[in-house]
Amino acid sequence: MNIIIRNSSNQPIYEQIYTQIKDMILNGTLTEGDMLPSIRGLAKDLRISVITTKRAYDELEREGYVNTVAGKGCFVAGTNRELIQEENLKKIEAHMQQIRQLAAGCGITNEELVEMFRILEVEE
């Protein structure tokens, strides 16, 4: 599992771990039943506290992304397709808001944005 910790980030380390694992689950890199690294193993690999790793795993479990099986480890939970859809819609809306703000700063109209999107669709 490739998790990158950025010490220069304003985001706490446990949140960086939580976010990266959640994103891997939502984008399908990790699928239902996949085993996550042990809390101690991940902490050792990332050179961070076991408590920090545990906090990230606890948050993932609280949100329903993973299940912990005593003595066996943490596994990716069965994903709720509606939850994934909602998460992705939030991301799309956030990106669209950024695009709209950037376009407004450049004097690009909504119609021009739609046309740009259509051109990109045709090119693919």
Describe the structure in your own words.
The protein has 124 residues and is mainly alpha-helical. The protein has two domains: 13-76, Arc Repressor Mutant, subunit A (Orthogonal Bundle), CATH 1.10.10.10; 81-123. The protein has five helices and two strands. It has helices at residues 13-26, 39-46, 50-62, 81-106, 110-123; strands at 66-69, 73-76. The chain has a two-stranded antiparallel ribbon. A hairpin with a 3-residue loop joins strand 1 and strand 2. Helix 1 packs across helix 3 and helix 2 crosses helix 3. 15% of the residues are buried. The model has no long low-confidence stretch (mean pLDDT 91).
> Helical amount among residues, as a percent range?
55-70%
Number of strands: 2
Order of strands, main sheet, comes to: 1-2
How much of the residues is beta strand, in percent?
A: 5-15%
Shape type: elongated
Low-confidence stretches: none
SSE string: HHHEEHH
- End-to-end separation in angstroms reads 31 Å
- Count of discrete alpha- or pi-helical segments spanning 4 or more residues: 5
CATH homologous superfamily designation of the largest domain: Winged helix-like DNA-binding domain superfamily/Winged helix DNA-binding domain
Classification by helices and strands: mainly alpha
CATH class of the largest domain: Mainly Alpha
* Number of discrete domains: 2
CATH architecture level-2 label of the largest domain: Orthogonal Bundle
Q: What's the mean pLDDT score?
A: 91
Output the radius of gyration.
19 Å
Question: What name does CATH use for the topology of the largest domain?
Answer: Arc Repressor Mutant, subunit A
